[in-house]
Amino acid sequence: MSIDYTSIPSFSELFIKYINDFSSISKFYEYDFRSDSDFRECIEIKKESYANNKNFFRNELVEVLKEQNKIFGSGDETFENIQILNEKDSFAVVTGQQLGFLTGPYYTILKTLNTIQLCEKLREKFPEYKFVPVFWLEADDHDFLEINNVNIISKENELKNVSYYVGGEEKEKYYEPTGNIKLDGRISEYIDEVENSMNGTDFSKDLFDNIRKAYTEGADLKTAFAKLLNNLIGDKGLIFIDATDERLKKMLKPVFHKELSTFPAVCEKVIDTSVELEENFDVQVKPKAINLFYIHEGNRYLIEPRDGEIFALRHSRTKFSKEELFELLESNPERFSWNVVTRPICQDYLVPTIAYVGGPSEISYFGQFREVYKWFNIPMPVIYPRTSITILEKKVIVFLEKYGLKFEELFDEKELSKKLIGKTNEYNADEIFSEFKDELRALFYTYEKTLENIDANQTKALSKRNEQFLESMNVAKDRFSDAQSKSSEVISNQLQKILINVYPDNTLQERVLNITYFLNKYGPAFVDHLFLHTDISDFSHQLVDTNLSLK
């Protein structure tokens, strides 16, 4: 089952246009992700341009990837794909992500599986070419507080966030590239807390044993991330690339040099495109005068131009002359680092990328970069939307069926709450008991008028009994109202539990929950279940049942 993105909040207008009306915004992108002919055109162009625009050979890249993926614990199929990448008729389908703890929100798993799935699809469509899946480890990013935590649903059925800090305390500022951060002894306590926050199952021990093998004291975050992701998805041929490697940074010198020597050309191109986009859409990225960082004494700082051909490092007192900066680029290219604008350029300079599998935000900001690609004389790849899903556990399905609800109704808690309580309170206690009391008074009045001439004493006794009956009605009404309130409270509590699962913190489940929550309940086969039950050709929000017996 799937639902159109327009039925779900939080998706940008540009993304929805990209999915539902690509022709209306096609000028901001190079290729239509639905078009086989566009894919073929991209392949033919990349086949020529990748060979001609490089200051290195494929085999140099391949040798680095072999070393890296050995460290990351990759399987045989990965090394076969790395070798395939050395052939001139081979191309890459790429995705990438920050180094989220325990792989971060589970959309990271989806992006990874989709990248592998798209390779399979392209191999069928274009059997004369070879396609391999590549995961770009965003190891230079320094926003540690975005990645140092996971969200799970706890034993108490509450959304719980568990955070890790080197040294046990949060620092005021983080500038160190996250890929270089080494885990200390507190990582064991962190993993224990995640594990102990969830109910133990038959799968818990193996799952957390594997997590502890990846996230060990002394390991750096990029290695821990890659090892765990490898373990979770199995050997499906995924190639990791860590572009912070000194040898790869050396290959990227032409990209860094052009950005430094021609600034603010790239900034202006992004701004020009953004102005046009902003006539109808919100834009994702604000470019910088120079879209590069510099790593100084272990910390990563944005390079900013100053008067007199001086370059300063933002949030630092360090400055360089133009000559000094270019000398550093020549002697120490590993100290230079991309930002969100130049990262795709670096990626597609290093790798023969045919398609990039991205989420809604990535698809939106790629719309700002078409002219940047042209400036660097690098063909823009097909930007392919990753699958968006909600995992439906049995309790959610039962809740929806019990109250006759559509899945999309869960995104408006206020209206849904009114609807559910309205169903419980379809009988208005005040109105019902008011009618009962009116009928009772009328009946006793008739008796009084009929019988008072026969026996006045009995009539008075009957009148007193009438007051007693009316009082009993008030007691009954109060009890009925209490029962209604309790029923409403039960339903309200049920709804909250369902929303924590499906729409935690008013955000799509895939953007919040860590995959360990599901693996702990449903076992390691659950990743393959996602692989089998997500359709990369269905460009809508998909609902995936947790029933592993589904075929």
Descriptive notes:
The protein has 22 helices and 15 strands. With 551 residues, the protein is of the alpha/beta class. The strands form 4 sheets. A 5-stranded parallel beta sheet has the order 6-3-2-12-13. Strand 2, helix 5 (107-125) and strand 3 (130-138) form a beta-alpha-beta unit. Helix 19 (429-451) runs antiparallel to helix 20 (456-502). The chain starts with a strand and ends in a 6-residue tail after the last strand. The mean pLDDT is 92.
Please give the largest β-sheet. 5 strands, parallel
Per DSSP E runs of 2 or more residues, the count of β-strands stands at: 15
Unreliable sequence segments? none
* Widest sheet: strand ordering: 6-3-2-12-13
Strand content: 5-15%
- Percentage of residues in helical conformation: 40-55%
Set out the fold topology.
Elements: E1 2-3, H1 13-20, H2 36-52, H3 58-71, H4 76-84, E2 90-98, H5 107-125, E3 130-138, H6 144-147, E4 149-153, E5 159-163, H7 186-196, H8 204-214, H9 221-233, E6 239-241, H10 246-251, H11 253-262, H12 265-277, E7 292-296, E8 299-306, E9 310-313, E10 319-321, H13 322-331, E11 336-338, H14 343-350, E12 353-358, H15 360-366, H16 370-375, E13 382-385, E14 388-392, H17 394-402, H18 413-424, H19 429-451, H20 456-502, H21 516-522, H22 525-533, E15 541-545
Parallel strand pairs: 2-3, 2-12, 3-6, 12-13, 14-15
Antiparallel strand pairs: 1-15, 4-5, 7-8, 7-11, 8-9, 9-10
